[in-house]
């Protein structure tokens, strides 16, 4: 079978407080809507905002983080995959209902501290902690590098 990709990245705001529940096996699940916006010009040159709502599903430890830190209005960056579920509508016999969801495997909380939100970032896969650290040099080293004079004789090629 040919290789395929199912990857989604979204940056948006939570529409209402997440719904938290547990599966029969005890796995925590969080569900919420995430709004993304697109701004375009109409035929008369006026800016128009178009909001798209995405159904977000988060499992396990990430769902616990959502429970503890995410609320209506929180700004999130999520990474996940698309999944469409279907079931028979109980009210209309013979009719199938479809729901497309983003199954999250990584999220970053981007709301400011004044919103009771930290800058918390958590991936469901284990990552090297050093990868998330600030890789810039301390300011003192930057100042030293800028103050050092380098001539053509110092360059080896």
Written overview of the protein:
It is built from 2 helices and 7 strands; from the N terminus they run E-E-E-E-H-E-E-E-H. With 157 residues, it is mainly β. The protein has one domain (8-128): Nucleic acid-binding proteins (OB fold (Dihydrolipoamide Acetyltransferase, E2P)). It is extended, with a radius of gyration of 23 Å.
Order of helices and strands: EEEEHEEEH
In this structure, how is the largest beta sheet organized? 5 strands, mixed, barrel
Give the overall form: extended
By CATH, the architecture is named Beta Barrel
Total domain modules: 1
CATH fold-level assignment:
OB fold (Dihydrolipoamide Acetyltransferase, E2P)
Task: Give the CATH H-level superfamily.
Answer: Nucleic acid-binding proteins
Number of helices: 2
Structural class by SSE content: mainly beta
CATH hierarchy class name: Mainly Beta
Spatial arrangement of strands, main beta sheet: 1-3-4-6-5
Question: How would you summarize the topology of this molecule?
Answer:
Elements lengths: L7 E7 L4 E4 L5 E14 L5 E13 H10 L5 E14 L7 E14 L11 E3 L15 H9 L10
Parallel strand pairs: 4-6
Antiparallel strand pairs: 1-3, 1-5, 2-3, 3-4, 5-6, 6-7
Search tags:
2 helices, OB fold (Dihydrolipoamide Acetyltransferase, E2P), mainly beta, 5-stranded mixed barrel, extended, 12% helix, 157 residues
Question: In a few lines, what is going on in this structure?
Answer:
By secondary structure, the chain is mainly β. 12% of the residues lie in helices and 44% in strands. It has two helices and seven strands; from the N terminus they run ββββαβββα.
